[in-house]
Amino acid sequence: MKRFIALFAGLTLGLLSSLVSAQAKFQEHKHFEDVAPDVPAKDLPKTVTGFFWYGCGHCYAFEPTLEKWLEHKSDNIEFVRVPAVLGRNWVSHAQAFYATEKMGISDKTHRALFDAIHKDRKPLFGPAEIAQFLADTSGADAAEILMNMNSQESRDAIAQSIDTAQKYRLRGVPALLVGGKYLVDPGSVGDDLQAVIEFLLDR
């Protein structure tokens, strides 16, 4: 019995020590912002929303870190990508994302579009040229891709993206919205991405 009590006490102290360490390491206004202060921190939904833009060099550099986290994240954490639209020339890239998601070809096109713009330096910003590139990459029909890019469904999704960005005061990308409450700049946490996400969801 004494051994059990000692073991339980040791585990409890270990968990408390880890929590205190995380609280000391990750600080509001430095590593994250509370963009929904009216939402209680307790029992947040296990969700992470990743805002990005295909034309963003920092987003491109962040992709490997994000992919690594996705490989090891807990199964109970839901991750959703959202193409941000913070400028007029961001629209066609958001259209491309939603079209490829609808057509089920994003696994072939997501990284390829990033690579084409940042690695191969291809100026892919016009809807028609983007659609043709996505077609060449995926084997899908360019006209069908363009039709989906210009669809009402795509326009509605972009409008929702804009509303979400305004609601959570998104100012740049890449950014992660954790639990619908905390906005994280990946550049501020470096290799501690998984740790800060777990810390915020378990506060």
Describe what this molecule looks like in 3D.
This protein has 203 residues and is of the alpha+beta class. It contains nine helices and five strands. It has a five-stranded mixed β-sheet. α2 links the parallel β2 and β3. α3 packs parallel to α5 and α3 packs across α7. The longest helix is centred in the N-terminal third of the chain and has 24 residues. It starts with a helix and ends with a helix. The relative contact order is 0.19. About 8% of the residues have low confidence.
Spatial extent as radius of gyration: 20 Å
Number of helices: 9
Distance between the termini: 32 Å
Taking all residues together, what is the mean pLDDT?
90
Q: Sheet bearing the most strands, described?
A: 5 strands, mixed
Oligomer: single chain
Strands, count:
5
Main structural class: alpha+beta
Defining traits:
203 residues, alpha+beta, 5 strands
Give the helices and strands, then pairings:
Layout: H1 2-25, E1 32-34, E2 47-52, H2 57-72, E3 78-83, H3 91-103, H4 106-118, H5 127-138, H6 142-149, H7 152-167, E4 175-178, E5 182-184, H8 186-189, H9 193-201
Parallel strand pairs: 2-3
Antiparallel strand pairs: 1-5, 2-4, 4-5
Helix pairs in contact: 3-5, 3-6, 3-7, 4-5, 5-6
Summarize the structure.
With about 200 residues, the chain is of the alpha+beta class.
